Amino acid sequence: MFxxxxxxxxxxxxxxxxxxxxxxxxxxxxxxxxxxxxPQEYRQxxxxxxxxxxxxxxNLISQSFLExxxxxxxxxxxxxxxxxxxxxxxxxxxxxxxxxxxxxxxKIVKQEIDRLWKExxxxxx
Length: 125
Description:
Distance between the termini: 38 Å
Number of domains: 2
Order of helices and strands: HHHHH
Number of strands: 0
Helix content: 55-70%
Radius of gyration: 24 Å
Structural class: mainly alpha
Shape: rod-shaped
Mean pLDDT: 77
Largest sheet: none
Strand content: under 5%
Number of helices: 5
Low-confidence stretches: 91-95
């Protein structure tokens, strides 16, 4: 994306910007069209940038996923708070600083994180 003098190569920048604009508008731009319009010496670089853009666009975390994770974390905190409240000798606010939660709570949090990870990304085995 940079020319030999260290400046932005405007041919690549212009093509990539048009491609990303169409992608963000919900269109399905054909990368080959943009690569073909680019001068031969810049095509490989543009191709890599377009492939990276497509990869990042496909792998963004959706708003609904974030909302689901937030609800799951909220539910976990609520459950832990209720469990703590049932023990009258040890009432305190639940938080996730390692020194401030019990070993059992830490185990529950780790299990929940592992479950969420496997649900989103699959098992790492």
